[in-house]
Design goal:
globular, four-stranded antiparallel β-sheet, 79 residues, alpha+beta
Length: 79
């Protein structure tokens, strides 16, 4: 089943097993979440941050909240 949210930006931590996605929902609100994948199990990405229900009015606001919430993201973006 396809996800209704459209990912606008995805930032991977070194090793590409953890990422943060900033997305827009069909209703025009924005959000973010932190995901992990374990390549050896083949089940794909799953939420480890559980931030996906938070809602923001812009992509910039969602990204700022993600940087403030996810410890490694600011360094990965060099902010």
């Amino acid at each position: 089943m396809a996800h209704a949210n459209k990912v606008l930006r995805s930032v991977n931590l070194d090793g590409e097993t953890i990422c943060v996605d900033v997305f827009v929902r069909p209703d025009g609100s924005f959000g973010f979440d932190e995901f992990r994948r374990d390549p050896e199990d083949g089940h794909g990405w799953y939420s480890i941050g559980h931030h996906g229900t938070r809602s923001y009015s812009s992509e910039a606001a969602a990204l700022r909240a993600a940087i403030d919430t996810v410890g490694w993201l600011g360094d990965a973006l060099d902010t």
